[in-house]
């Protein structure tokens, strides 16, 4: 007994002897690093409260004959000693090409620990950056003779929670994020998992009943907001988190989904499970089941923890952008925030189609002459209709018109394992690509390109040069891409290392052609838009389209800014003012917000790319409310989050770029909300023309969604606006400097 106590004491003393601490510039966030025996370990605290309890760091490597010239791999999990530590401070202010603010301060204190593994002679660096609003760390692998090529079986970064927090989570899935967010205690995830999966999505692969996606937002019982995500995920697989909840004996990887792309179960880890309520990183595998193919020198993405006792700090945090590399493009003058409408919503709702003919059970692009086929008459992307959309955009200050279904191949395109599905250059016979672009340009509008890849990624890469050349020829400068269905080559997943490389390849190739990219179904963003600002949007969550498929809960858009938007903007496609679809189509569904709530989204869901999603004929019925969509900016000099609580409400004020005009948006959940907005942020001595678009007294997202009131008055700094949001509602305010 005495001997055990002695050894324990020695252990604790040696541990303390090597503990390294680094605090944030304001001293509120404190990071501690040490070796637990020989395992790298860290802890995080905020204002003296535990955020991350002692958590191990490391990677398990695959024992593969191809790795490191046939050498049997030794994991990078333990057997380490500290060979060097370096601390430094950094403080710089940079200007994003587009964003929520004109300037962003990047200020942190850094600790870089070099670890040597005696048994292999290998060394790695774990680098921590500690900010006033959280922390990021990553693994770095310097080039060295004994660590050259290696394969990752699993990354084992732990995040031990200090309690059974409330979490807003999505089921961890290798292929989709288009689920409704669940709100529950961590201990309740397992019991709710199965029902939380969106089994109807076109590609689903879940791996563990306690696997969740990032960005994961949590709240502790004593009011700490904690968010875990990642930054700068490039040449690496997307990370999920698996919760050790005390009910499991090993980390699971039992794949379940609706696809044929099952990867083999890797052999379970032999390392001991961490304590209950610990998240362990879980990477997306490739088609072989492996998680990463690495060549040194290289590094992992940053693993991020944002923390505050004020929910508004979660939304104003720039930690993820700051952990990304500066802009890699020399010339960014061609990148511009864009407001657009599109030949889109009517197809999603089911009134018209992407495809042209019903003549064939399937098509092969080379063997079909569309001019000789019989059109079914519901093809939306026809010259006459597109002209109407162009006219609407030109009359209403919208920059671009997206046209989907313009190119041949839509007759059969998803989940057929069809390789040569689209060529991205041949229009259907009723789409005059040259004439329409000329018409649009004559009216000061551009068409927006659409490239649905049907997840046939090699096909897209084969055609991409021609496809971008075509865009340059006709004057397109933005493309919406899409990855519906299981990934081809078969067995790969949307969020694997190879797919993440594909998405970035597309963005880089697009930049060479001065093309902006908005990628749907691609991996969730991790701030790479700082480095490649032509990545102006992503979907990577449940967008407005789901309102036509059955709906999303009213609190959905009061959660997304805390979760999905942490890594970058979302092409959420708001602005459906005719919220009851049955009024103009056979679709029985309705949009789960009030009309005023739709307007609010242009301010609360930050994006440099904003769609006016509804049809011109629907907007014609609500032109007074549409005025806000015309007026609202999509690029900002300043942003103030005024009120926020995940899944309840968000109120934000933004100053339009290069002007003195402000716009305010407030969005709430199904319970309604009362906002008191102090106009303290306005310029001293200046008057503003204030237009308020609010829910009427009896408005309700379900039974009275289109009851709104528009009021105008003159306001000045210090005035107060009292606004009532209906259940599922919101408000929008424009403040035009006089
Ligand atoms: C899914 C996208 O999210 C949607 O916007 C698009 O219209 C369809 N795929 C077709 O590409
Ligand atoms: Ca709520």
TrEMBL record:
Domain Glycosyl-hydrolase 97 C-terminal oligomerisation: 635-735
Domain annotation Glycosyl-hydrolase 97 catalytic: ranges: 344-541
The protein's required cofactors: Ca(2+)
Signal peptide range in chain numbering: 1-19
Keyword Calcium in record: yes
Record carries keyword Cytoplasm: no
Domain Glycosyl-hydrolase 97 N-terminal residue range list: 22-326
Any one Gene Ontology molecular-function term assigned to this protein's record: hydrolase activity
Keywords, sorted A to Z: Calcium, Hydrolase, Signal
Subunit structure: Monomer.
PANTHER family: GLUCAN 1,4-ALPHA-GLUCOSIDASE SUSB (PTHR35803:SF1), GLUCAN 1,4-ALPHA-GLUCOSIDASE SUSB-RELATED (PTHR35803)
Protein's recorded name: Glycoside hydrolase family 97 protein
Source organism of this protein record: Prevotella koreensis
